[in-house]
Amino acid sequence: MKAKDIRELAPTEIETKLRETREALLDLRLKKNAGLVEKPHQLRSLRKEIARLETILNEKQTAAA
């Protein structure tokens, strides 16, 4: 998801997307430990997406305060 798309979401939607992305990262890490990862580059992209989501969520919370 691009930053532009994330900025259009409401804070509650961002929190939901953040939770889903963290769960996906956890599943991928468990698969990596078991040696079942087909696309190891997804780990990096999920971490970046989490950082993007957290950054924009913090910006929205700061702007609301």
UniProtKB/TrEMBL annotation:
This is Large ribosomal subunit protein uL29. InterPro entries: Ribosomal_protein_uL29 (IPR050063), Ribosomal_uL29 (IPR001854), Ribosomal_uL29_CS (IPR018254), Ribosomal_uL29_sf (IPR036049). Gene3D superfamilies: 1.10.287.310. GO terms for cellular component: ribosome. Keywords: Ribonucleoprotein, Ribosomal protein. PANTHER family: 60S RIBOSOMAL PROTEIN L35/50S RIBOSOMAL PROTEIN L29, LARGE RIBOSOMAL SUBUNIT PROTEIN UL29C. SUPFAM superfamilies: Ribosomal protein L29 (L29p) (SSF46561). Transmembrane segments: none annotated. Belongs to the universal ribosomal protein uL29 family. The gene is rpmC.
